[in-house]
Write a structure and sequence with these properties.
Number of strands: 6
Structural class: mainly beta
Distance between the termini: 42 Å
Number of domains: 1
Strand content: over 45%
Number of helices: 2
Largest sheet: 6 strands, antiparallel
Helix content: under 10%
Length: about 80
Amino acid sequence: MSGDNYIVTTPHGEFVWFDAEIASPKVIGHYLVCQRNTSGRPTRWVRYWNGEDWSDSKADRYGEIVCWMYCPPVPEAVWRH
């Protein structure tokens, strides 16, 4: 952990997760989140931040959101018709 972030380094690159207790997204949109259920097992999902709270986080089933990160952009080729 580095300050308010969790930095994970893999052979595919470095990934930065933000601690949900310390920081919230500043922009409305979809984010990759990590939730921890009652067994302690982490699960990754895409959730929507509405500017004030996580919409439909399904916390009752998957646990609270413990960290989040920005989703990568969609490849430009996907937008071509």
